[in-house]
Design brief:
The complex is a heterodimer. By secondary structure, chain A is an all-alpha fold. Chain A folds into two domains: 175 residues, no CATH class; 289 residues, no CATH class. Helices cover 70% and strands 0% of the residues of chain A. By secondary structure, chain B is an alpha/beta fold. Chain B has two domains: 31 residues; 280 residues, Rossmann fold. Helix content of chain B is 50%, strand content 13%. Chain B is built from 14 helices and twelve strands. The chains are: A mainly alpha, B alpha/beta.
């Protein structure tokens, strides 16, 4: 089921009412059944895959917990990883893998035609696979106890607000909340509705209306674009994907909140970051912290002691062991890229970020000795980091590497800064949206708290903002496009 | 005092949300009850769309909207050979419209009727060359086209692909050809159906949710008026944004529009495919540089406009098509003004649409050229 639809609003209303009316166990069963229905509204035939993931990890984690002998525990962990990653590989990477193997064989003189594989990617597979893996790994690491009630575990995995596009949740965050039920509070509904409204506004009013402009720009022949066009398209897509994906997180967080269940925050004004470390503490926080805990730290052979969700940036400092550090960085980011999509463009996107994190580390060695924090320096860092981060969206959006190179090459030609190759509106919209996003950050960070203290003034601002948002969401609510992160 | 404020503060969030919902829905109910004619809104006050008829049967329509009726008319008139007029809003608009005024396609149809030639006209606002190609292919399938007549506006070479407003008329149409531009157009039509904002339920394509969402949408459309008027409000919203942009940036009809290289070249490709198909099908073509008022500085860069006209002459020559430049054929006195597209002032210069006498001149000019070519 798609969030930006009337069907979902009715479904959510019914789910929330039933959840609060039913006793704990019946409510949980309702959430499980409702979540399967939610998924089935897309395609019922992929429901067994979800259940396989739930059954395998439920069973494996109990078997792991039962055993003390490391080899035996490891055997079950490997079994779980093989099943989960095997399914993910088949559905998401087999076509990419086959194409590349055939291409490589043809380079070496074999004359093989690329086989046609018609494999449909099950919605949300990357997200629920990561969640179920992290659960089994946490049990293996003895960070959490294995859940003995299958329904509770399966409900955690398929719980509809996070099922399709995250946040990537940890069992330790959600299972305790599913096992007990908080007493009903008005605040749950109010906060939930506000988040839902914000999410719908970002998706149906902003992201969906930016999309045609971005599509138009990327449909143009890359060779005819100017450097200013490339930068504009990078900023435009950067904002589209931010509005789109953070909208999903807002709606997910809001929907869960209405049932008194807290999800961790997934975005925190990423384009306000003044460093790449900071960017990854602000963007898709749940994924970057997952990558840190289950990929980066194990590759570095660092013992994981925390499962906090504060982003990959946390471990990218000098206090970490230096062994394999750079290898781990590039490997992790390549996998992070590949997680987003089976294409070289995504791998390149990962390596691009790894390179800038690496450069930042090198610079930090020097910077630490001299740096004193001041606004000017922060501003200068921000004005360097943001365009570089925005330009990373080019491979994310372009269909192949040829286009990526062609677009990047424009940035290095002086002639590219002397003309415009797109319709004027796109530049205006880009400037307006970026200005608006920056203003929102300034308001939220520096003004909002002072205004909230002022009673009447804060109410006037809130009522005006909600009224405008309700009207616009009412006008624009149409399931015309999926959330971008559905494809991952 | 304190005792009444405290409980209010406790419910501050809920009170704010309830007031917002009441306010929003009051505004929605109060303002969402009218349908705007966006075609006339786009043309501006003082300019009206008019689609010609012969004996009260349509011979001209926006895109392919009245194709069936037009075909019926052609059949009733003896299925005569057709001169197909394709164009943009200039073909179907009359500045300072008065009762009884008609456009040049109808005037041409009257004059050429005696010569056993039927005129059929299709026009799309801001039409691209892809739109022209699509219109041509669609008519070619059903009538015997003897000649195609169309203008090339420098303005419209800034437009890309298939116009959104045209999409509903042709969504099920596909070009039965395998050439590059046909493939591109068919691909765009499929994409528009599946992906873009032209279909409100595009993201639900072939899912179970499509059924429920479509039923809910139909139910709300019938039982809740504001829901029905939502497309209208979206249109009004964008129209006002457009006005705001023009007001803030001082954009008006005189503002220069430059060529957008890639989009221009895509249009030229489609033009060449159209000319090539006509040549292969033995269909005569007349391309014209359309009338443009010259009592004000034109909204193009002079050098680009000169190059454009020269290039059009060369391309038409390459494909043995007729070419005339009639940019000065409508005297300045037969042009007019249109309603401003800003929040300032009332009127703006209309560089695109002329008055009825201009249509008479256009009809005479084109008639002479058409007769020369199909004598």
């Amino acid at each position: 089921m798609i969030f930006n639809s009337v069907t979902y609003l009715i479904f959510l209303t019914l789910a929330v009412i039933l959840y609060w009316l039913l006793p704990l166990r019946a409510g949980r069963a309702m959430l499980f059944g409702g979540s399967l229905l939610f998924y089935g509204f897309w395609r019922f035939e992929f429901l067994p895959l979800l259940l396989i993931a739930a059954i395998v990890d439920y069973w494996c984690s109990i078997e792991i917990e039962k055993r003390e002998e490391p080899k035996s525990r490891l055997r079950f962990l490997i079994f779980s990883l093989t099943i989960n990653l095997g399914i993910l590989f088949y559905f998401k990477y087999l076509i990419f893998f086959t194409d590349n193997v055939v291409w490589a064989l043809n380079v070496f003189g074999c004359n093989i035609a690329i086989p046609h594989l018609d494999i449909l990617l099950p919605l949300g597979i990357s997200f629920y696979t990561f969640e179920t893996i992290s659960y089994t790994v946490d049990v293996y690491r003895k960070h959490i106890k294995a859940e003995r009630n299958f329904l509770t575990y399966a409900t955690f995995l398929v719980y509809f607000p996070h099922l399709i596009a995250g946040p990537v949740l940890r069992a330790s965050e959600i299972l305790p909340q599913l096992k007990t039920k908080k007493p009903f509070e008005n605040e749950f509904i109010i906060t939930g509705m506000k988040r839902l409204l914000q999410g719908l506004f970002l998706k149906v009013v902003l992201a969906d209306n930016i999309a045609p402009l971005v599509n138009e720009g990327f449909a143009l022949n890359a060779g005819s674009l100017s450097a200013i066009d490339v930068l504009t398209l990078a900023f435009m897509f950067g904002m589209q994907i931010y509005f789109d994906f953070s909208a999903y997180s807002h709606i997910a967080i809001g929907s869960a909140k209405m049932m008194g269940i807290n999800f961790p925050e997934n975005f925190n004004f990423p384009y306000a970051a003044a460093s790449f470390r900071e960017f990854w503490k602000r963007w898709h926080i749940s994924l970057s912290s997952w990558i840190r805990d289950y990929l980066y730290l194990p590759i570095m052979k660092t013992k994981v002691v925390s499962d906090g969700s504060t982003g990959i940036g946390n471990v990218l400092n000098d206090s970490q062991p230096k062994r394999n550090r750079n290898v781990a960085l590039f490997l992790t980011w390549s996998i992070m890229g590949l997680w987003h999509g089976a294409n070289w463009t995504f791998i390149f996107w990962g390596v691009y970020h790894a390179s800038f994190v690496f450069i930042e580390r090198m610079i930090n060695k020097f910077r630490k000795k001299t740096a004193t924090k001041n606004w000017f320096k922060l501003f200068m860092s921000w004005s360097i980091v943001v365009p570089i981060a925005m330009l990373s969206w080019i491979p994310f959006r372009a269909t192949n590497m040829t286009i990526v190179w062609e677009m990047y090459s424009k940035l290095f030609s002086m002639k590219g800064y002397t003309f415009l190759g797109m319709k004027e509106n796109i530049y205006i919209v880009c400037a307006l949206l970026f200005g608006l996003t920056t203003l929102m950050y300034v308001y939220k960070t520096f003004i909002s708290q002072k205004v909230q203290k002022s009673g009447i003034l804060s109410s006037i601002i809130n009522i005006s903002a909600y009224t405008v948002m309700i009207i616009l969401v009412f006008c624009f609510l149409r399931p015309i496009s999926q959330f971008i992160y559905f494809q991952f | 005092m304190r005792s009444t404020v405290k409980p209010l503060l406790k419910y501050k969030g809920i009170i704010e949300l309830v007031i917002s919902f009441i306010l929003a829905f009051s505004i929605i109910v109060a303002y969402f009850h009218e349908t705007t004619n966006f075609e006339n809104l786009a043309l501006g006050v003082y300019t009206r769309a008019y689609y010609g008829k012969i004996n009260n049967v349509p011979m001209h329509s926006m895109g392919l909207r009245k194709k069936e009726e037009i075909l019926k008319g052609n059949k009733e008139r003896g299925a005569k050979d057709v001169v197909l007029l394709i164009g943009n809003s200039q073909t179907h608009s009359i500045n300072q419209y008065k009762e009884g005024d008609v456009t040049f396609p109808e005037l041409l149809a009257d004059s050429l009727d005696k010569k056993s030639i039927d005129i059929i006209a299709s026009s799309v606002p801001n039409a691209t060359m892809e739109d022209f190609y699509l219109l041509y292919q669609s008519w070619k399938k059903d009538v015997n086209i003897k000649m195609v007549v169309f203008p090339i506006f420098l303005d419209d070479t800034r437009e890309e692909g298939i116009q959104q407003g045209f999409y509903n008329d042709i969504k099920s149409f596909r070009i039965a050809d395998s050439n590059a531009i046909a493939k591109k157009i068919n691909g765009e039509l499929e994409k528009m159906e599946k992906v873009t904002g032209t279909n409100d339920l595009a993201a639900l394509n072939q899912t179970f949710q499509e059924i429920t969402e479509s039923k809910l949408d139909n139910y709300l459309n019938t039982h809740f008026n504001p829901w029905f008027y939502r497309p209208n409000i979206r249109g009004e919203f964008f129209s006002n944004l457009y006005k705001l942009r023009n007001t803030v940036l001082g954009i008006d009809a005189k503002t220069k529009r430059g060529i957008i290289k890639d989009i221009y070249e895509e249009n030229i490709k489609a033009l060449k495919m159209l000319l090539d198909d006509c040549r292969k099908s033995n269909i005569k073509v007349l391309v014209y540089i359309p009338p443009l008022r010259n009592d004000y500085e034109i909204p193009y860069y002079r050098n680009e406009y000169i190059t454009f006209k020269k290039q059009m002459g060369e391309i038409t020559k390459e494909y043995n098509a007729g070419f005339i430049n009639i940019e000065n054929c409508v005297p300045n006195k037969y042009w007019g003004f249109k309603g401003t597209r800003t929040f300032k002032g009332l009127l703006d210069i209309d560089f695109m649409h002329f008055q009825y006498p201009g249509h008479i001149i256009m009809a005479d000019t084109l008639q002479t050229e058409i007769e020369k070519m199909i004598k």
